[in-house]
Design a protein that fits this description.
0% of the residues are buried. The protein has 72 residues and is an alpha+beta fold.
């Protein structure tokens, strides 16, 4: 499911055309910056409902397993 951030929390996007638009927007951003791109994944934080550790930490681990080096 695709999500959109509004105000202080994530919102589920139900409309299929809007979900496809958001998915394509992220694809375009990633394909335009092939040289010198930095992907920032914030650390998970249990106190912040917009940064659940299970999601962000798992995303960071996935990107590392794909071969993306960490700048830490």
């Amino acid at each position: 499911m695709c999500c959109d951030f509004r105000g202080k929390k994530w919102q589920s996007v139900i409309a299929e055309d809007r979900r496809l638009y958001l998915k394509n927007a992220y694809r375009v951003l990633l394909t335009r910056a092939r040289q010198g791109m930095v992907i920032f994944v914030p650390p998970g934080n249990e106190e912040d409902p917009t940064r659940p550790p299970g999601f962000y930490d798992a995303t960071f681990t996935y990107l590392q397993r794909m071969g993306i080096p960490s700048l830490q």
